[in-house]
Task: structure prediction
Amino acid sequence: MSQDSKVKTTESSPPAPSKARKLLPVLDPSGDYYYWWLNTMVFPVMYNLIIIVCRACFPDLQHSYLVAWLVLDYTSDLLYLLDIVVRFHTGFLDQGILVVDKGRISSRYVRTWSFLLDLASLMPTDAAYVQLGLHTPMLRLNRFLRVPRLFEAFDRTETRTAYPNAFRITKLMLYIFVVIHWNSCLYFALSRYLGFGRDAWVYPDPAQPGFERLRRQYLYSFYFSTLILTTVGDTPLPAREEEYLFMVGDFLLAVMGFATIMGSMSSVIYNMNTADAAFYPDHALVKKYMKQQHVNRRLERRVIDWYQHLQINKKMTNEVAILQHLPERLRAEVAVSVHLSTLSRVQIFQNCEASLLEELVLKLQPQTYSPGEYVCRKGDIGREMYIIREGQLAVVADDGVTQYAVLGAGLYFGEISIINIKGNMSGNRRTANIKSLGYSDLFCLSKEDLREVLSEYPQAQVVMEEKGREILLKMNKLDVNAEAAEIALQEATESRLRGLDQQLDDLQTKFARLLAELESSALKIAYRIERLEWQTREWPMPEELAEADDEGEPGEGTSQGGEGRSAQEGPPDPE
Result:
């Protein structure tokens, strides 16, 4: 067992997921079978969305193909029923492992809104045929409640297709077609209610040649609705209040819906890509890179499955970038509310200051590992520690098959490698192979980030080192003698540093005294020079001395008297 792992041992290895899938016919929600079933469900849902309204508004369509409609109706009902059965056999991820227990799957499904909507969509409203007759397809409008299944299929296809932008445009055009189709059906029904051919706005009288055919009726109505909803114009003016109301409603729908969507379709696609890029890595670039570099299909499939897992299960790997625009304090509160419970379960972080944990939470980097992927291998240099948020990892032998222990949510490993503990016999090398069993979500904390935080909390650093020392003692990975030697060496070094500090202080004191004496001497010299300048200011010039010599003794007396006055008038002694 590794010195940098906190594990929960098991007596036997868990059964391989592939064996469980063979025993229990449970579908993987990210697998191919479930994906193709979703695509199959697109047909009955789209059939009900398009055909039911059309049959209700075009009576000839309902009467002409009654048997075919009944067969298709109950075929779609059968698919709806099978879809519920599939729901009861669709697994879900728990701790990153696919749950294949039918009891847990059923219990989870019946407690969701999807189960209630699925039941409501299969309510036997057709029983009212006994009272109202077979030509009332509007009784089947509850089949529209299965529309969320259609949206799920579209979302799943969008994550799998190599051309997501083209698929989004196609999906948008499909929505526009459905809206125009419904509007054309309502237009024909309103024309039948007001009377065919009563004015230029309603559908022409079917008695006219060519207008009695069902295809002409639908195409004329679809064309008329397209003109209105695209705001092209060139439509007859309404003549009745009902017609005015219908036109106003269509214009509002066109302005608020289709025109807005078509006018900003490029910006919508850009915003969708921007939002995806903010939460999830851009898989389009990776796909293009692998295609250009001719990466083998097996590895390419693993990469695509990893991206699909992130999007389906809403996993984010760049939380720091998402929260970077929040104020620092608010960002810390959000991170604490999400991850503090996970961090507080780590033994070496227990009983630490709350502010320290808040700082560490901001340094956590989420990472997601795929089934069978190694988190670390024996002999690797340990530069970070890992905290298991969700999923299961195994400590395996060098063959990658033999399992020594299983790590679950809340456990951690690699903590010793990021704390410099004296006497650690393993240094910073990994001593175990740790592999992800399923999809595992981990938090990564690097040595540099921990060191940066602990520089502000020296007392917490001491506490964490003491806890790490206790863990090493329990694992017999602590060399006490080497630890004592390192401690003695560190104390000797600290003693020498203290001596050097004292000597440096003494030198600084002596240097300060020398500077003071130098300043005092410079001041005294300056005063003396100034005094001499005052004394020499009144001295006679050579011409005056020559005249004094000519005049005789009086000149000498005068000169002496002047010299005496000059000396008396000099500046006072600064001392």
